[in-house]
Design goal:
Elements: E1 23-24, E2 31-32, H1 36-54, H2 59-62, H3 74-105, H4 108-126, E3 134-136, E4 139-141, H5 143-159, H6 162-184, H7 194-198
Helix pairs in contact: 3-6, 4-5
Length: about 220
């Protein structure tokens, strides 16, 4: 009869996989890059952009020189702007966005500051898990303190640097271009169907996030 001690079963625990839930660390808490909230946000943005671009009008109608004429009065110019905005609103958004993009690209310092500000809000507050406080330089910050820090940083970047002036100048130029085009573009050859008239025509209304399927996806963080 053998006197050797019994052999105990040993279970080996594999290391956690990093492919299914990639994280971004360095702020004292891990931020899930592939969290459901991020996926829902990206899906909503992509679907909204596709829907918005599908509503754009042909650019040949926008720049048709035969349709330009001087308005008879200020009220006529205002009526033209309203009708052209209802018809070309997606094209107008694209024009304003293009002017804004060119302004930021010609001011790389402002572009870098704006990207850094958006990244700070995204990874330090919006998509940071609520059960993991922010830890910086060995100090733990509450949600209220984090919000105040980011708000102060936003005020500093927008009002005390060139970012605010670049954004305001680009938006004013874009609005001026849209108003000039709308005032001098005769809308008599444009036809709005009932579906277009029933849609909301507010600024960036075509970017409304779709609600289908969004409620079924569990949210993470503060989104």
């Amino acid at each position: 009869m053998s006197s050797a001690p019994p052999v105990l079963p040993v279970t080996t625990v594999p290391p956690p996989s990093t492919t299914a839930g990639s994280t971004v660390s360095g702020t004292g808490s891990d931020v899930p890059v592939n969290s459901p909230a991020v996926r829902v946000l990206i899906n909503n943005l992509s679907e909204s952009l596709r829907n918005g671009l599908a509503q754009r009008r042909p650019w040949t109608e926008l720049v048709d020189r035969s349709a330009f004429s001087k308005p008879e009065s200020f009220s006529d110019a205002t009526l033209r702007v309203r009708k052209n905005y209802s018809y070309f609103r997606v094209n107008y958004y694209a024009v304003v966005a293009g002017i804004l993009a060119v302004s930021l690209l010609t001011n790389p310092f402002s572009l870098i500051l704006l990207i850094g500000l958006l990244a700070s809000w995204t990874f330090l507050y919006l998509f940071r898990p609520t059960d993991r406080p922010l830890v910086l330089f060995g100090r733990t910050f509450t949600d209220f303190e984090t919000l105040m820090i980011l708000s102060g940083l936003t005020i500093f970047v927008v009002f005390l640097t060139s970012v605010g002036s670049v954004l305001v100048s680009a938006l004013m130029l874009g609005v001026a271009v849209v108003c000039l085009h709308g005032a001098f573009r005769a809308p008599e050859d444009l036809f709005l169907d009932e579906q277009d008239n029933s849609q909301a025509t507010g600024f960036l209304s075509f970017l409304r996030a779709p609600t289908t399927g969004a409620a079924s996806v569990p949210s993470a963080g503060r989104v």
